[in-house]
Write a structure and sequence with these properties.
Distance between the termini of chain A: 66 Å
Shape of chain B: globular
CATH topology of chain B: ABC transporter involved in vitamin B12 uptake, BtuC
CATH superfamily of the largest domain in chain A: Response regulator
Largest sheet of chain B: 2 strands, antiparallel
Number of domains of chain A: 2
CATH architecture of the largest domain in chain A: 3-Layer(aba) Sandwich
Number of domains of chain B: 1
Oligomer: heterodimer
Number of helices of chain A: 12
Strand order of the largest sheet of chain B: 1-2
Number of strands of chain B: 2
CATH architecture of chain B: Orthogonal Bundle
Strand content of chain B: under 5%
Order of helices and strands of chain A: HEEHEHEHEEHEHEHEHEHEHHHEEEE
Chain lengths: 390, 290
């Protein structure tokens, strides 16, 4: 029995807790203010998460060297949410207990929607990094804005529209097929927005197939799609599912142009998808060649000896700058005052450009989207076109 | 369309069968469901991946290396986690709980050491599409299916035609009597675990090539477990037939009903079978199915 007990003991999960205190000479006497960071350091989204953490640490050092926020140094309280909604809720509770002034993250819509009510009750503003679902900042039942939820990224109706516009205008597509993850808010809503926008532009969605999260084989669904011979094949999933779907689609002889969304934008899309993803297009939040972010990219490369995994590092820096600027405007770290100042941010210089928050829905105004093309031989995403916000 | 569905179903079913064999082998001799099997498959995939990407071995060597590695790991797993319980004559429920613990332990070990990112095997097969009666199938599928069926057949021959195989079958019937007859049961059990591990190695490499390699890839063995139950836990031909049936039925459900209902269907089938046909199609009568 002794042995049994030992084995049943819960395994120590790799929850990484890092608290960074960086004191500058002038601020050593002031107590640090705590900013929470909920991020996927492990799990399927860890590539972005790790890069996001790097970028935040980099910016914290810089801000602290300049005197911190309102004369107080920033300390990041970071917990791993493992890209899991339940774990995100746990992390949010811990952050509320830690009395952070604001929270950066999570990066995913599902996790953000799970996190929002908890931080709202604790009156702690959250600024999600890349969660693009509209219901991150709006309450789905009442359609009212959530007073403590903000974001620096564009939202899915815009992203879905951009994908549909590109499919119709540039790819001359008449028929589209969709494959999405039924267990993800992100995929479900994006398929709907794409379908609506594509239909509004005269196209027809001939097949809309779903799969369950964690499923690996889509050939049953793809067999149906093949029969209907679409011109474009829209896959609003993360890079893993996209790579698998692309490989299996090509194996079945589907020749449609593949079209994806911002979750594709991970360097391992090419490693995982190989030839099958060559020539595919996807919508992204940021491009490594965007002139606006060159100083950030250079700084990151020098410090971490590699490219940042976009767009999360940029969006997380934007989030931290938003918090700092709002605190300055409010002259206080008090939750409700900070949230009010966040809602009224205007023309703030952030890493990705200039940002103005729409007080009505807490989304940024005029956030552009880029279309990138996957080039397997060069192992890169090539900039194709930039769509301005509407 | 129907043929395409059938062909796809068989190719998915072939992999299910390969994984189900591991469950059935161990169930047949120790009467418990070794839920660590999925984790051994995952480790087999990582071993294969290391051989393919670090040492640049060919497919044959990669599969052999993975078979050997996963086999040894499986024996090691038995020695560390199960043999003590077995000697203490603990109920099979304890063994199953221990197996679940091992599975979580191994997954998290991989998370902590190798990390959570996804890996793909180098492409052993050109992305070539084979036409079977007008439906498309990749070269890999044909190869994987052939090897799966071949391996299961070889195992069948081993169990029925060799002295060790006969000892295993005797052990399946009555372990105590078997040991009274002078069979070294510890050695016998190790051989069974090695065989199950070897199959996990093949399955791991195929899964890795077909899909991706990552710490929770063993999740798909849930399906293999259902396949083993359909065929009758403990029966080798049952594992083969169960895998193919499940693969085809699932694909039919996804194609003609709804892909979202697929797992609802599979797991309903599991529950229904356990209620009405607990011995599956080819299983022998036992009281406990854990």
């Amino acid at each position: 029995m002794e042995k049994m007990k030992k084995m049943k003991k819960p395994i120590v999960f790799c929850v990484v807790v890092i608290v960074t205190f960086v004191f500058t000479g002038m601020a050593f006497a002031a107590e640090a203010i705590k900013v929470g960071h909920t991020v996927s350091l492990t799990g399927g989204a860890s590539m972005w998460g790790q890069s996001e953490a790097n970028a935040v640490d980099m910016l914290v050092e810089k801000l602290n060297a300049e005197g911190g926020i309102l004369g107080r140094p920033i300390a990041i309280v970071r917990y791993d949410n493992r890209n899991d909604a339940i774990e995100s809720v746990n992390v949010a509770r811990r952050l509320a207990g830690d009395k952070v002034i604001a929270v950066i993250g999570p990066a995913q819509s599902g996790n953000s929607i799970a996190t929002a009510p908890i931080l709202e009750r604790a009156e702690i503003p959250m600024i999600v990094t890349t969660a693009t679902n509209p219901y991150v900042t709006l309450d789905q039942k009442t359609e009212k804005v959530r007073p403590y939820a903000f974001r620096p990224c564009f939202i899915d109706p815009f992203q879905g529209t951009v994908a549909a516009r590109f499919a119709v205008d540039r790819l001359n597509a008449k028929k589209a097929a969709i494959l999405y993850d039924v267990g993800s808010d992100y995929g479900q809503w994006l398929s709907k927005y794409f379908e609506d926008a594509f239909a509004a532009r005269g196209g027809e969605v001939v097949a809309k197939e779903a799969f369950r999260s964690e499923e690996l084989d889509y050939r049953a669904q793809l067999g149906k799609i093949k029969e209907l011979a679409p011109d474009v094949f829209f896959i609003p999933t993360s890079q893993k599912e996209a790579a698998l779907a692309a490989r299996q689609a090509r194996d079945l002889g589907i020749t449609a142009v593949l079209l994806g969304t911002d979750n594709w934008g991970s360097p391992d899309l090419i490693d995982l998808g190989g030839d099958a993803v060559d020539g595919a297009y996807f919508v992204n939040l940021a491009d490594l060649d965007d002139p606006d972010i060159q100083s950030f990219v250079a700084e990151y490369r020098e410090r971490f000896k590699g490219d940042p995994v976009l767009p999360n590092p940029i969006m997380a820096q934007d989030a931290l700058i938003m918090i700092a600027e709002a605190a300055k405007a409010a002259g206080s770290f008090d939750g409700p005052k900070l949230a009010e100042a966040l809602a009224n941010l205007k023309d703030v210089r952030v890493t990705s450009g200039v940002l103005t928050v729409d007080p009505a829905d807490h989304n940024p105004l005029n956030k552009p989207a880029v279309i990138q093309k996957v080039d397997v031989t060069k192992k890169s995403f090539v900039f194709v076109e930039k769509y301005q916000g509407e | 369309m129907f043929l395409q569905t059938l062909v796809t179903g068989l190719s998915i079913g072939g992999i299910y069968s390969l994984m189900a064999v591991g469950y059935s082998l161990i169930f047949s001799i120790l009467s418990f469901s070794n839920f660590a099997h999925g984790a051994v498959i995952m480790l087999g995939a990582y071993i294969g991946l290391a051989l393919a990407t670090q040492l640049h071995w060919g497919l044959g060597l990669v599969v052999s290396g993975s078979v050997l590695g996963a086999g040894v790991l499986s024996v090691f797993n038995e020695r560390v986690a199960y043999s003590v319980l077995r000697r203490r004559r603990a109920p099979s429920l304890f063994l199953m709980i221990s197996a679940m613990g091992c599975s979580v332990f191994l997954e998290n070990m991989v998370y902590a050491t190798i990390g959570s990112r996804f890996y793909a095997f180098p492409e052993f097969f050109k992305r070539e599409v084979v036409s079977v009666w007008g439906s498309s199938l990749s070269l890999l599928d044909v190869f994987a299916f052939t090897v799966s069926i071949g391996a299961i057949f070889a195992l069948h021959l081993f169990v029925t035609r060799t002295k060790t195989g006969i000892a295993i079958r005797a052990g399946v019937n009555d372990m105590t009597m078997c040991s009274l007859m002078g069979v070294n049961t510890d050695r016998l059990i190790s051989i069974v675990f090695f065989l199950a591990g070897a199959f996990a190695g093949v399955a791991g490499v195929f899964l890795g090539i077909k899909y991706l390699v990552y710490p929770t890839m063993g999740w798909v063995t849930n399906k293999a477990y259902i396949a083993a139950v359909i065929g009758g836990l403990g029966s080798l031909p049952g594992a083969l037939v169960g895998g193919l049936i499940l693969g085809v039925l699932e694909t039919l459900v996804s194609t003609y009903l709804s892909s979202v209902l697929r797992d609802v269907f599979s797991f309903t089938m599991l529950i229904a079978l356990l209620i009405w046909l607990p011995n599956g199609l080819m299983g022998r009568d036992t009281e406990e199915k854990i």
